[in-house]
Amino acid sequence: MEMDMYWITKANQDPTKLIDENPGRFPLWHLKDMNNTTDRAFTEVGNGIIDFKKIFKSANKAGLKYFFVEQDKCPGDPYDSIKKSISYIKNNLV
Fold it and tell me: pTM for this one?
């Protein structure tokens, strides 16, 4: 199953709790972050409120094989958003 971290969080669920309850069931992760506004809109990975450092500590338990980075809407040039997300991931998660 592919877990979408944004939508799980938007539904007020905890990704790490779901992983703990279902070990080995989440080999695919969909990464996008959520800003800290009332609408909880999309933002670059590492630029929002989703605790990816905590989530990535559960990678082995989840059975993670691949993750995909997406941002449905960007405030400017999408390539700038990609660079921000990838930079955060490389420097903090993998």
Answer: 0.92
d(CA 71, CA 35): 12
Give me the number of domains the chain comprises: 1
* Domain limits for position 65: 2-92
Task: Please report which residue ranges of the chain form alpha helices under DSSP H.
Answer: 5-10, 15-21, 52-56, 59-62, 78-92
CA distance 84 to 13: 26
CATH number at residue 15: 3.20.20.150
In the predicted model, is pLDDT for residue 49 greater than 90? yes
75 has a pLDDT exceeding 90: no
